[in-house]
Amino acid sequence: AICGHGCKYGECMGPNKCKCFPGFTGKTCNQDLNECGLKPRPCEHRCMNTHGSYKCYCLNGYMLMPDGTCASSRTCAMVNCQYGCEEVKGEVQCLCPSGGLQLGPDGRTCIDIDECSSGKAVCSYNRRCVNTFGSYYCKCQLGYELKYVSGHYDCVDVNECVTNMHRCNLHAECLNTEGSFKCKCKQGYRGSGFNC
């Protein structure tokens, strides 16, 4: 089976037919499925969509059970957690719905962890990290674009000279470089290449 556009988060099952991994959708399985919008809803109270998955959390005064349901808890109501709580060995602890969030100094509200600046993010060498609330994603470095090449997605150098994204002078030639470009004045002209 050949899938010309590739199957980003899935596998090729027939000519241009992708079977997406759980949590992903789209013709090339490149879109995150918002499980929170599905019917029946996967969470009893509140749902937070994450990349390829989702997290359940409960309203204040309830605690999250292992099956995703919310059980009433008077002890939880007293603690006043932002995203519900759980009881561990008789102690009530507030929860954060994502590993990219941590409990704030008050022990009740969740604050974002910037994985990009803390070094927790893992992006390949030609990608840059973009922080989001509760998570992060990897984006191609400037001068590169995401393309499907030989069986997988990769960040490929943009040839600014071909795409006319350069600002070279009319009397200059454009020279593509890895991730960028240079302008060089043609013979008989001199200057920066942007001005000749």
From TrEMBL:
One of its GO terms (biological process) is cell differentiation. It holds the Pfam family EGF_CA. Residues 32-71, 112-150, 157-195 form the EGF-like domain. It comes from the Eukaryota. InterPro entries: EGF (IPR000742), EGF-like_Ca-bd_dom (IPR001881), EGF-type_Asp/Asn_hydroxyl_site (IPR000152), EGF_Ca-bd_CS (IPR018097), Growth_fac_rcpt_cys_sf (IPR009030), Nephronectin_domain (IPR052235), NOTCH1_EGF-like (IPR049883). GO terms for molecular function: calcium ion binding. It is found in: Secreted, Extracellular space, Extracellular matrix. Keywords: Calcium, Cell adhesion, Developmental protein, Differentiation, Disulfide bond, EGF-like domain, Extracellular matrix, Repeat, Secreted, Signal. The keyword Secreted applies. Its main location: secreted. Belongs to the nephronectin family. This is EGFL6 protein. It comes from Eubucco bourcierii (red-headed barbet).
